[in-house]
Structure formats: C-alpha cells, structure tokens
Amino acid sequence: METHLTPQPFLKWAGGKRQLLPEIIKQMPETFHTYYEPFVGAGAVLFRLEPTQAVVSDINEELINTYCVIRDSLEELLVELGKHQNEREYYYAVRDSDLSPEFGERSPVEKAARIIYLNKTCFNGLFRVNSKGHFNVPFGRYVHPKICDVENLRAVHAYLSEHQVEILHQDFEAVLTQAVEGDFVYLDPPYEPLSETSSFTSYSLKGFNQAEQVRLKKVFDKLTERGVDVLLSNSASPFIVDLYAEYHPLLVSATRTINSKASLRGKIDEVLIKNY
Ligand SMILES: C[S@@+](CC[C@H](N)C(=O)[O-])C[C@H]1O[C@@H](n2cnc3c(N)ncnc32)[C@H](O)[C@@H]1O
User: Fold this and answer.
1) d(C-alpha 11, C-alpha 43), whole Å
2) Strand intervals (E) in the chain
3) Angle between helices 61-72 and 150-162 (to 10 degrees)
4) How far apart are CA 184 and CA 215, in angstroms?
5) What stretch of H or E contains 22?
6) How does DSSP classify residue 159?
7) Whose CA is nearest to atom 24 of ligand 1?
8) In this predicted model, what pLDDT tens digit does every residue of 9-58 receive, in sequence order?
9) Residue nearest ligand 1's atom 25 by CA
10) Which residue among 89, 109, 172, 189 is least enclosed by CB atoms within 10 Å?
C-alpha cells in the first residue's frame, strides 16, 4: 500500500509562512469553495491546507515551472536531480549556466532540477537574483544537503495531480478576477519593509513597492464588494497598518528565518487583515 505523506514546501523561500501558519489557520473562514493563493511562493499554506479545489499563481516563472514539472514530469525530474553534485565548482557552473545563450533551450525538467538543486545547496537556501535577473547566491558548503527529497516530491506530486489545482504564472490582479462569492483568497505579497535594512523583497526583478501595495489594496476592496473572503498577511509597517485601517489589522509576532543580517533574526511584528 502506498503511504500518503503530507506535502511540504519543496523549496526554501524568502517569506516562507511556516512560523505564522497556526495563526493564519485560526483566522481562516471555516468553509469555502475555491481556494486562491496568487502569491504562492513555496506554498507553505497551500500544502498545510491541501484544498481540493484551488487556483495558485506566482509572478516567478522558474518557481511556477517547478510546480508544473513536479505535477507533470516527476519521474524525469527525479532522474535529473540525481545527476546534480554538491561540489563547489560544479555548483558555480550550474548557477551561472543561465548566463549562456543556450540556457533558453533547456527543457522545463532541466530548469526545475536546477532551481531545486541550487536552492538546496546555496548559502542560506535563499533564492535571490541580482539586478540583471541572475541567481547570484554563493555555494552553501552543506555536508549532506537533501538535493532530491523523493518522498516529499512524491507527496507534492500526489497532491497537485489528484486534486483540481490550477497553477498559473500571472500577476495577482489577473488571477483574482475569477474569484466569486463563497471563495477564499489568501494574500501573502512581498512584505513592505519595516526599515531600509530589513528589506528582502528580491524575489523578482520588479520590486513590489508602495504603489504595488496600493494596487493590491484596491483589489482587496473589490473582492470585499463581491463577497469574496480575503485574508492578507504583511509586515506591521505604519504604511500597511494605515492603508488597511478600516479592516482593523490584527498584530501578530513571527520569527523570520531568512535574513541576511543575523542581528535582524528574531521577533518581527506582522499583521493579518481580513474582510469577514
Ligand atoms: C512572501 S512571498 C510568498 C511566500 C509564500 N506564501 C510561502 O509560504 O513561501 C511573495 C511572492 O509573491 C510573488 N510576487 C511578487 N510580485 C507579484 C505579482 N505582481 N503577482 C504575483 N506574484 C508576485 C513573489 O515571486 C513571491 O514568491
């Protein structure tokens, strides 16, 4: 008999929600129809909930490609992951392969294996790109990184392929035009930095600035008008608390695990905002 493990995030991702999960779960509506997560990242909330009907999306193309490959081509991915080595020079060759003109010809499976490999072997496991869009994190020197976590990848594959989970590579606003009354939307946008130094919003080339936070708030209002339940997490920055004042933001504490400055690791206040 096949054992069904609970899927877990298959990548370590800046802003991963593991710490805040219990509070998020507590604040969710008891029932809903379709689950929407348009800033899905590593999917900590998605995999905790395992909704049977969901629409998930992210603007990061490499990330969404990896979800699709785990769902559609798992066996090929496992073979490809098995080829990767935890060795310094090899790491840099794989890391910098996206600088070569032939990179565009790589298959989706090869690209997904590269991202998982780099994420498991790079310093701090932090996905970060420079201003030209290249992954620029140094080698992590881990002794036994689990490059190919077969059991978890199988669990993620089972979840994604056995349920109605639509996986999109779209901007959040486009994704949410489909949501209707009775659906539930969880929003986990890149956080508004609490200070200049605490900014780690380097997920993609175009930064998620205050104008983007305001665009998201307008979408939040539109969903509210349409009777869609929405829960949003963000940092407790004065800008965010003020922007959502009418929804009475709930202050929570969370421990951040990814931060380039060790002194900034620790309790940082976040807010949860809901319209129900
Ligand atoms: C805070 S992370 C999500 C963390 C995730 N909930 C987790 O548990 O790992 C924010 C995500 O938003 C994505 N993003 C940034 N701008 C976006 C946009 N305009 N539309 C959709 N996704 C976007 C980033 O690529 C990133 O993965």
Assistant:
1) 9
2) 35-37, 53-57, 164-168, 184-187, 229-235, 250-256, 266-274
3) 90
4) 19
5) helix 21-27
6) H
7) 203
8) 999 887 767 678 999 999 999 999 999 999 999 999 999 999 999 999 99
9) 60
10) 89
Between CA 202 and CA 16 the distance in angstroms is: 14
Contacts of 268 (CB under 8 A, 6+ apart): 194, 198, 235, 253, 254, 255, 256
d(CA 167, CA 61): 11
- CA separation for the pair 93, 1 (Å, rounded): 41
Q: Which of 8, 46, 58 to mutate to test the pocket of ligand 1 (most atoms within 8 A of CB)?
A: 58
Q: What is the pLDDT of residues 205-234, one digit of tens each?
A: 457 899 999 999 999 999 999 999 999 999
Looking at the domain that runs over 72-150, which CATH code has it been given? 1.10.1020.10
Angle between helices 74-82 and 61-72 (to 10 degrees): 110
CATH 1.10.1020.10 in the chain, residues?
Answer: 72-150
Q: For the chain, what's the residue count?
A: 276
Q: Which residue's CA lies nearest to atom 27 of ligand 1?
A: 41
Nearest-10 Cα torsion for 155, 157, 163, 166? 130
What's residue 205's pLDDT? 43
Query: Which CATH number fits the domain 21-67+163-274, given the four candidates 3.40.50.150, 2.60.34.10, 1.10.10.410, 3.40.50.1370?
Result: 3.40.50.150
Rg, the chain, Cα only: 19
Using the Cα atoms of residue 180, residue 181, residue 182 and residue 184 in order, give the sign of their dihedral: positive
